[in-house]
Design a protein that fits this description.
Elements (H helix, E strand, L loop, with lengths): L3 E11 L5 E7 L11 E2 L2 E3 L6 H13 L2 E17 L2 E15 L13 E8 L11 H18 L1
Parallel strand pairs: 1-6
Antiparallel strand pairs: 1-4, 2-3, 2-7, 5-6
Length: 150
């Protein structure tokens, strides 16, 4: 078996309100994580692109929405294997607020996102339906809520 190794730096937007989290469902074209998982909107940074610019581009492609603000929260690394490619992914997580927060619509044809939606918190309990970055984002949000409650 001929295996390839790829590295990627990606940006992810965490947009949430009291009832739901903005997510994208991965398509068969997803290079790193399996299709069908709920995933944070975001993706790879193009050469020479600034991270916040990549975040705005990816959010628009995957949800049709535009960030009003973006604040870096955390960075994590992931190792994944898909389609005979071993991935080393560094993910930058941003808390985002959105302009004109309307219903999300995927605007990129043939990309790694098949659907985008505001997913209710009650539907996010089964981690088997979530990508690893999404699971980590839920932990970040839980810790932030705990800190605010103290």
């Amino acid at each position: 078996m001929n295996s390839r190794v790829r590295t990627r730096i990606s940006v992810y937007g965490i947009a949430a309100d009291a009832d739901r989290l903005l997510l994208a469902r991965l398509s068969d074209a997803s290079p790193v994580f399996p299709p069908g998982l709920w995933h944070l909107p975001g993706g790879g940074i193009d050469p020479g692109e600034q991270p916040v610019d990549a975040l705005a581009r990816e959010l628009h492609e995957e949800t049709g929405l535009t960030p009003a603000t973006a604040r870096l929260l955390d960075a994590r690394t992931y190792n994944a294997r898909r389609n005979e490619v071993s991935w080393s992914l560094t993910a930058l997580f941003y808390a985002v607020t959105l302009r004109g927060c309307r219903e999300p619509v995927v605007s990129e044809a043939g990309g790694s996102t098949e659907a985008a939606a505001w997913v209710p918190w009650s539907e996010l309990r089964d981690e088997a339906l979530l990508s690893p970055p999404t699971v980590d984002a839920l932990g970040m949000l839980a810790r932030a809520r705990e800190a605010l409650a103290d």
